[in-house]
Amino acid sequence: MAIDAFVANLKDRTRTRHHLLVRDEDHPVGAQLTGSEPELFAAAAKRMVDAGFDVIDINFGCPAKRASGRCRGGYHLGQPQTAVQILEVVRASVPARIPVTVKMRRGVDDSQQSRDQFFDIFQAAQKIGIAAVTLHGRTVEQKYVGPSRWSFLREVRAAFPEAVILGSGDLFTAEDCVRMLRETGVNGVTAARGSIGNPWIYGQCAALLRGELLPAPPDVLEQARVIRRHCELAGQVLPANIVLRQIRKFCLFYTAWHPQASSVRADFIAVQSWADWQQVLDRWYGDNLPGRYPENPGNLTSGCRDTCG
Predict the structure, then answer these.
(1) Alpha carbon of residue 299 to chain centroid
(2) E-state strands within 35-186
(3) 10, CA 20 to 30 Å: which among 49, 96, 265, 270?
(4) Spatial separation of the C-alpha atoms in residues 58 and 175, rounded to whole Å
(5) Confidence (pLDDT) at 309
(6) The pLDDT of residue 56
(7) In terms of Cα–Cα distance, which of 165, 162, 178, 163 is closest to 137?
């Protein structure tokens, strides 16, 4: 969340309640903060802990213009003094039992100065007591253009063998996740865009890591169950008109698993009302057909490239 606006509107329950909603079944759950002013990070971190969040994550990795243009996200990788100050004030502001983590890219750009700034921040994070670093193998300048440089993750792993590092970048399938673990030596992975419309990726990863074969893709009835559950959960925290827009967008990603993907996608694009949405489900998700693994999964989330997600 963008904490500049969040802190300014703490008393506006209508606008902030979904940020603060933590249910018993959600634990352990983390809150990610992004902003520009160190003092606001401390206040926001305290507020999130009071709301019941178990982990506080600081975003120094978002490449979107709306973040870096406002001195947020990946912008801080080029401002190591401010970045370290943010890490210090957040770590000091929450109880020791609450892990503080940080999300980073390998630098603002490919310059030596940017590389040095990255390692300055990373090393300081270890001294401050940051519990884990999520590391994306692209620069901020790259956004999502070109491959993620997994070799950099391997380099950081070798330089900081005691650090907890979670790898990120180009993780669109369970096979990608397992390959990153084995090739880079990171402690874990975070499938960001790769999990959009694909909540099954986690179970698939677990199966591969147990030495099992890749599970069959979810059948159509399982896809329908997940879509409806996604809609139900969104409806618990967002107004109905916003839920419709959001769920229609996510349904476009879910369609990649359907055996008639292009036709289902076209129908979801045309949805203008809840009645339309239900008609699409009735038409395409009523029979228990086998699902399929998406073609070119790395291309499915291209519409998300200018977000922090």
Answers:
(1) 17
(2) 55-60, 100-105, 132-136, 165-168
(3) 96
(4) 28
(5) 42
(6) 96
(7) 165
**Is 100's pLDDT higher than 90?**
yes
Residue 62 catalytic? yes
- The pTM is what? 0.88
* Residue 5: how many other CB atoms lie within 10 Å: 12
Is 103:57 a contact under the CB 8 Å cutoff? yes
Mean pLDDT of all residues in 90-108:
96
3-state secondary structure of 100: strand
Give dist(CA 281, CA 267) in Å, integer.
10
What's the CA dihedral at 157, 161, 165, 170 to 10 degrees? 20
Side chain identity, residue 128:
I
Q: How many residues are listed for the chain in this entry?
A: 309
Q: Which of 62, 177, 205, 231 is catalytic?
A: 62
What average pLDDT score do residues 187-200 get? 94
d(CA 183, CA 169): 13
Question: Which of the 8 DSSP states describes residue 305?
Answer: T
State pLDDT tens for residues 112-170. 999 999 999 999 999 999 999 999 999 998 888 889 999 999 999 999 999 999 999 99
Q: How far apart are CA 112 and CA 184, in angstroms?
A: 22
Structure confidence by residue, pLDDT tens digits, 138-147 = 999 888 888 9
Check residue 61 and give its pLDDT. Answer: 84
Instruction: Write out 183-198 in H/E/C secondary structure.
Output: HHCCCEECCCHHHCCC
Pick from 156, 190, 152: nearest CA to 170: 190
